[in-house]
Amino acid sequence: MNKKHINNGKEVDTELLFKSFNNLATAEEEARICEWLKANDENKKKYLDARGLHEAFLMDAPIELFENRMPESAVKRRSAVKYMLLGLGNAAVVALFCILGLNLISDRYEERFADTMNTISVPAGQRLDYTLSDGTVIKLNAGARLQYPMAFASDRREVHLEGEAYFDVAHNEKQPFVVKTFASDIEVLGTEFNVNADKEAGAFTTSLIEGSVRLSSSLIPGGHIVMHPNEKVTLVKNQMILKKYDASRDIRWMEGVLDIGGLDFGMLMKKLEMAFGVRIIVECEVPSGQVFANAKIRVSDGIDNAFEVIANGADFTYSRDRMNGTIYIR
Q1: Long-range contacts of 86-94 (CB under 8 A, 24+ apart)
Q2: Is the dihedral of CA 129, 131, 137, 143 positive or negative?
Q3: CA-atom Rg of the chain in angstroms
Q4: Beta-bridge partners for 193
């Protein structure tokens, strides 16, 4: 690890960052760090990396280096080591990190936090943009659920997805990015694609905007597909079907536009529930087959406008209970 991070002649190194983390830096040194952080995003990333190592050290440092006993829990270990570090001089803190070895700390940090998962769940009627630590941008649609590790393993970046999301993956050929769903593992190096994985409905699609991805079926071992831009894979009776497709259609939801072309009535109602955060109860025999070959709905126009559009392609009436947000289809 390179200890020195220099910007415009003002040096901020790992020693100074550790000093700040342990509340030992002077006001002048803290100001220098703040100025360094404002300079560029690379400095911010270096700061977060150093902070992560520091936090991992507080959790994992063997307490016998300080005391001749083991604490009863990781929480006590962290507290004990933290107060011990606060009592040490700056040189002693750096020396201790050198004794343990920064590479060893980094490895232990990756091992521990690669197995610790964070979860993001997006409520119906909402969307969320999120950026992972590697720079990968993920846009989550309503109802989506994303699980990702606190730190990626050294050999791969792996996340788990339920629902719909758009990925703009930061390129790293030494650390492939994998999106795991109930139907397929999607492996990429750096690309843009959209995924919709609805296990309950048995529905799965992936459309590729840029780059390339490799799909490995979770339902049929050994099967895989390599996708290219403007191609779409759809799960049909446990088979992955590849076809040419205008991939931009599948990311219109990021602009608040629902592409409802090709959906049957049941899937259409589910899409409306997620987009508008309502509950829809169907009390009549629903039309079979797709409702529209090609149609779009803008979410900002409201649910009533959506049903006016849909009524042009299907024969039904609806009523709305404004007290509980339920819509009845009759």
Answers
A1: 86/22, 86/23, 86/24, 90/15, 90/18, 90/19, 90/24, 93/18, 93/19, 93/22, 93/24, 94/14, 94/15, 94/18
A2: negative
A3: 26
A4: 167, 208
CATH architecture assigned to 256-329: 3-Layer(bab) Sandwich (3.55)
Return the structure tokens found at 248: 């931009």
Q: Measure the CA dihedral 117/123/126/128, to 10°.
A: 0
Strands, E, within the chain: which ranges? 4-7, 10-13, 117-121, 128-131, 137-140, 145-149, 157-168, 177-180, 184-188, 192-198, 203-210, 213-217, 224-227, 231-236, 239-244, 257-259, 279-282, 296-298, 318-321, 326-329
Contact between residue 232 and residue 218 where contact means Cβ atoms under 8 Å apart = no
φ, ψ at 173 (rounded to 5°): -65, -20
- CA 250 to chain centroid, in Å, comes to 18
Q: How far apart are CA 298 and CA 289, in angstroms?
A: 23
pTM of the model: 0.66
| Topology at the third CATH level for domain 117-249 | Jelly Rolls (2.60.120)
pLDDT by residue (tens digit) across 273-301? Answer: 999 999 999 888 776 777 777 889 999 99
Evaluate whether 257 touches 299 at the Cβ level (below 8 Å). yes
Among residues 316, 320, 311, 322, the alpha carbon closest in space to that of 280 is found at: 320
CA atoms of 80 and 57, how far apart (whole Å): 12
Is-same-fold flag (117-249; 256-329)? no
Amino acid in the structure at residue 76? K
pLDDT in tens, 130-152: 888 888 999 999 999 999 988 88
List the beta bridge partners of residue 130.
Answer: 138
Helix axes 102-114, 90-100, angle to 10 degrees: 70
At residue 73, the pLDDT reads: 41
In this structure, are residues 171 and 161 in contact, taking their beta carbons and an 8 Å threshold? no
| Rounded Cα distance, 111 and 280, in Å | 45
- Smallest Cα–Cα separation from 136: which of 73, 212, 193, 90? 193
Domain locations in the chain?
Answer: 4-114, 117-249, 256-329
